[in-house]
Amino acid sequence: RAKKEIRNALQTNAMRLDDEWCEFFKANNFFIGVSLDGPQDIHDRYRKDRHGAGTFERVMQGVRLLQKHGVEFNALACVGCETAHRPLDVYRFFREAGINYIQFTPIIEREPDVETQAIKLWLAKPAALNRPELNTKITPWTVEPEAYGDFLIAIYEEWVRKDVGKTFVMNFEWALAAWIGKPSPVCIFARQCGR
């Protein structure tokens, strides 16, 4: 029988981490994803606690504990419409903080749909009508596709000149894997697509 290796992963905002948790993560081979959007003013724009205060300092305290204990982790940075205009500020922040694994996720959020009558009508007579397209309006903080693309390009241009092999940007690693014919780690339809 083949042996199986089990790897544990956990996504967190890192605000409640302490030495005991980090020792546990290290001893049990956990990989930790930390929700951290960049420098303080960018991170604190949306990442607030229940009292409305920014969480940056507490998240960074957790990051420093993970680093102290040698726990493998990456930063999962959400890119909204405002963030997209500051790619190098965001990227350089991570590099200077010693965060060597980064993943940039676009914020794409749709407004709740108010077309309830159209939905009710379609549900009552689906064959008589085309299904209405739901949730077509996006929120003001959603990143536009071109802005997200420009954000990644600006970071790529700096990364490819200075940081290949030192800083790992998951978005670029995935694209490179696809380019050399490896299956995408983020495509859930890989089997259906013949990969």
In short:
The protein is an alpha/beta fold. The protein is built from 7 helices and 5 strands; from the N terminus they run E-H-E-H-H-E-H-E-H-H-E-H.
Key descriptive features of the protein:
195 residues, alpha/beta, 5-stranded parallel beta sheet, 7 helices, globular
Biggest sheet layout: 5 strands, parallel
Mean pLDDT: 86
Tally of contiguous helical segments:
7
Order of helices and strands: EHEHHEHEHHEH
Roughly what percent helix?
Answer: 25-40%
- The share of residues in extended strands comes to 5-15%
| Side-by-side strand order of the widest sheet | 1-2-3-4-5
The rough form would be described as globular
The whole-angstrom Rg is 20 Å
Provide an overview of this structure.
- The protein is an alpha/beta fold and 195 residues long.
- It has seven helices and five strands.
- The chain has a five-stranded parallel beta sheet.
- The longest helix has 18 residues, at 145-162.
- The two termini are 26 Å apart.
- The mean pLDDT is 86.
Q: What secondary-structure arrangement, pairings included, does this model have?
A:
Layout: E1 8-12, H1 19-27, E2 30-35, H2 40-46, H3 56-68, E3 72-79, H4 87-96, E4 101-106, H5 116-124, H6 145-162, E5 168-169, H7 170-179
Parallel strand pairs: 1-2, 2-3, 3-4, 4-5
